[in-house]
Amino acid sequence: MSARLRYKEVAPDVYRALAGVQAHVRESGLDPKLVELVYLRVSQINACAYCVHMHAKGLRTAGETDDRLDALVVWREAPFFTARERAALGWAESVTRLGPDHVSDALYEETQKEFGDKDLVELTLAVAAINAWNRMAIAFRAAPAS
After folding, report:
1. What is the rounded CA–CA span in Å between residue 146 and residue 93?
2. Is this structure's pTM higher than 0.90?
3. Alpha-carbon span 75 to 88, nearest angstrom
4. What digits encode the pLDDT tens for the residues 33-62?
5. Which end of the chain is more exposed for a tag (fewer CB within 10 A), N or C?
């Protein structure tokens, strides 16, 4: 599959807007490795090959283990993730897969207890940001670099 268009070149203001949100997330105080795990998991859910490749590669460069990367897709069953990571991954999945029941009160309470108010808002923005990036990459068929 070949790329449809290079949205960064066609609409640089759109790209800059998304990059601005991304810059905010980087400066939010959330653990960068946690954010990257969330980005990778959301990208897996959305089947964004470009973003899965990029975030897995970034996590490996940051020292993430193959055990954790291999098990991310089944994080609930794997022993490799902390309570905070589990809360973030559950929240990210629920916010990404908004269904008729939306985000449950139980999940909200669990995640809010782990993150507090401000970090929960920042985490939600991070989830929204990667969902936006995924949709841009998928819609315009961005391909992973070899």
Report:
1. 28
2. yes
3. 11
4. 999 999 999 999 999 999 999 999 999 999
5. C
Where is 58: in which H helix or E strand? helix 49-61
- What Å distances lie between residue 104 and 72, 90, 100, 109, CA to CA? 22, 11, 11, 9
Residue 30 is given by DSSP the state S
Give, in degrees to the nearest 5, the angle at Cα 10 between 8 and 13.
Answer: 65
C-alpha 144/C-alpha 97 separation (Å) is 24
60 and 8 Cβ atoms separated by less than 8 Å: no
* Residue 4 clears pLDDT 90, i.e. is over it: no
Which amino acid is it at 105? D
Length, in residues, of the chain? 146
Residue ranges of domains in the chain: 8-139
Does the domain made of 8-139 have the CATH classification 1.20.1290.10? yes
Sign of the alpha-carbon dihedral angle for 66, 132, 135, 108:
positive
Q: Cβ atoms within 10 A of the Cβ of 34, count? A: 18
